[in-house]
Amino acid sequence: MENRDNTRDLLDSSTSTKTPDIYDVAIIGAGINGCTSAYFLSQANQKVVLIDQDGIAAGGSGAAGAFISPKFTKGGLLKELLEEAYLFSLNFYSQNFPKHIQKAKLLQIANSEENALRLNDFKKSTTLSLLEGRKEVDEILTTEAKEAVSALLEEGGVVNAQAMCQALSANIELMKFKVEYLSYEGGLWKIGDISARKVILATGSYDVVMKMPYLELRRVWGHRIDVKTDTKVAHSIHHHLSISPSSQEGIVAIGATHNLHFNPFSSETYDIEAGRKELLEKAAISVNLENVEVIKDYTGLRSGSNDYLPIVGPIVDVKETMNEAFKVSKIKQMKDESFSYFSELYMINGTGGYGFVLAPYLAQQLTQHIVEGVPLKTALTPTRFFRRWAKKQG
Ligand SMILES: Cc1cc2nc3c(=O)[nH]c(=O)nc-3n(C[C@H](O)[C@H](O)[C@H](O)COP(=O)(O)OP(=O)(O)OC[C@H]3O[C@@H](n4cnc5c(N)ncnc54)[C@H](O)[C@@H]3O)c2cc1C
């Protein structure tokens, strides 16, 4: 797996002498959700600008593993969604950006009895084809890993997160500044000097630019490492954490930790040594890696929703919707269309630990919605959270 820090020159809006253009779409946030949205929208002939306070893949996306895997559990919307998104994204990345994805077989190993039951249910119900045997990795697996219930898929992938975001946004205009405020005047969104017909908020786990009292995002801090090892890992292995196949240079990615309590925006400092220890100990439950040397640490926040489903779609204007005529008691019967929405304001977020799996799939649907009016899945739009919140307002 290629592992370069990709940086590129950014336009700083405060020093730019360019005459302000009108963009079709301004996207705030250049992580994987913002970059895939920019890619699909520009493919659909939209004039797009990406705005990020720190540059491409500077947030959670730059820290990601970024393993492409389905969810190994029994039925449910999230499992179905991730299965579709996994197939879509593997194909999308391999067809369009083959240099930045490393494909390999994917071995999922149950890490508890409960997990074994779920994995068995998955094996019975999945439409994905399962392989028998795992001889290419058998000799490096620990006894515990060998004896546990497992499932082997023909295809998994590991994306070079930073390089992929750079490649997706290579032809997109990029501006570097922090968006503090958005306003809508005369049919256009104004963001500093920028005017755009539509805006997409792809701000990950950072504070939202637009106040949405009904929406709470969960922030999960994670740490992953790249190690050099003499052991050749042939598959993507997922057990207590994920272990990538070896790159040509003998580098293996291990990650990630899940820390719900650490907040990088506070004065607390993150203990990188403790994080490395946890990662190496968890990896050692699954595989015997020889002569391990940590060569790079990546840390960042991923943002998830309270119902674990991603969030994509138009944003309800609370003030307009909760006017005097609005009856909380009627909310059950109201259709999503009967709420008031900000004009041409959308979000894509809440992809949790599956951002690289979900982003291409969701960004394509968001593009089709914005450009062609194709409806989005109602279970995924932010409106679901508005409904739940509004019911409680009494
Ligand atoms: C350690 C770790 C490991 C992971 N492993 C995997 C994995 O194996 N597979 C997988 O699929 N996913 C993985 N993920 C999850 C995945 O990385 C996230 O779901 C994804 O990065 C979310 O992308 P995003 O674009 O929503 O957010 P981000 O990447 O955080 O991007 C948000 C961007 O918005 C910018 N921004 C925010 N507010 C403003 C503002 N006001 N003005 C200007 N810019 C702003 C930020 O600077 C940032 O660049 C992992 C995440 C972490 C942290």
Structure in a nutshell:
This protein is an alpha/beta fold and 394 residues long. It is built from 11 helices and 17 strands.
Question: What does this 3D model show about the protein?
Answer:
With 394 residues, the protein is of the alpha/beta class. The chain is built from eleven helices and 17 strands. Strands 3, 4, 5, 6, 11, 12, 13, 14 and 15 form a nine-stranded mixed β-sheet that branches. The longest helix is centred in the first third of the chain and has 20 residues, at 77-96. Mean pLDDT is 92; it is low at 1-16. The structure holds flavin-adenine dinucleotide. The site of flavin-adenine dinucleotide has 44 residues, from α1, α2, β11, β15 and α10.
Largest beta-sheet characterization: 9 strands, mixed
- List each distinct ligand once: flavin-adenine dinucleotide
CA gyration radius, whole angstroms: 22 Å
Rounded mean pLDDT is 92
Number-wise, the strands total: 17
Poorly predicted tracts of residues = 1-16
Order of helices and strands: EHEHEHEHEHHEHEEEEEEEEHEEHEHH
Helix content bin = 25-40%
Q: What is the CA–CA distance across the termini? A: 54 Å
Strand content: 25-35%
- Shape estimate: globular
Which secondary-structure class do the elements indicate? alpha/beta
Number of helices: 11
